Amino acid sequence: MSLGNISFEVLYQSEPRERWTGPILLDGGARDWMRADSKAGRLRADDVSDYLWHGSTYYVLLDGLLTPLVSDRFNTEVAFQLTLLNWQAIGLAGLVARLTHVTVGRRRPMLEGCSNEPGAPNPCAFEGASFIAGHAMMTSANAGLACADHMALPLYGGGIADDLVCPVMVTTALSVGLLRIVADKHWLSDTVPAWLLGGGIGFGMPWLLHYRYVRQVASPLPGTALLPWANETGAGVTFAGQL
Predict the structure, then answer these.
(1) Rounded CA gap, 71 and 157, in Å?
(2) What is the pLDDT of residues 159-211, one digit of tens each?
(3) For 209, what's the count of Cα atoms within 13 Å in the CB-facing half-sphere?
(4) pTM higher than 0.85 for the full model?
(5) CA separation (Å) from 225 to 119, 157, 216?
(6) What number of H helices and E strands is found in the chain?
(7) Domains, in order of start, for the chain
(8) Strands, E assignment, 93-234
(9) pLDDT digit string (tens) for 116-171?
(10) Nearest to residue 136, comparing CAs of 70, 76, 204, 182?
């Protein structure tokens, strides 16, 4: 996966040919309604979307690494497994995003009406690929990971602290996608698939590969668990329940 990410990153930086330009479906209306009127406003939206994307990534990775160490008596095993799980999903989301950038080659909306004439105010220079919306996809993957992690594991002790993580992260992902449209970096049709695909990878990958098996083994029925036991004559697993 790492080799694939590096390869697509090199191809992306080589300014791939734009094969798809212009809006589809609701793109034009959404752009007219949401795009900031001033260049300063578009730049502010761009900057805020960067901060939210990077912040959500740091949160997920540090939460998986540091929370088990700090709150669970330096539980290095859980910290290591969560870190690998989070990087696995983030790496796949990044690979898919760059794959679409290189292969689809959609022009950003900010280049609509651009010109190759010398001194043109909006030159047709490569500004990065528009489909799929990378910021929205990666932030949605982070949100999916945070939701899956805190639904499966009481990292903050259970209760409202863990329950709040998912809605806050989902709100962040939605905000990033909208800000990228405000900044005129993406069309609506770049952003909606990014939300769905990023969230699907972030939540689905850890759940399907890891957490659903934990639930099946650790709690086959509500209020029950399989617990290890040992005494002077032997050891094994016992099934316990709570009335």
Answers:
(1) 9
(2) 999 999 999 999 999 999 999 999 999 999 999 999 999 999 999 999 998 88
(3) 15
(4) no
(5) 71, 18, 10
(6) 8, 2
(7) 2-241 (1.20.144)
(8) 224-230
(9) 788 778 888 888 889 999 999 999 999 999 999 999 999 999 899 999 999 999 99
(10) 182
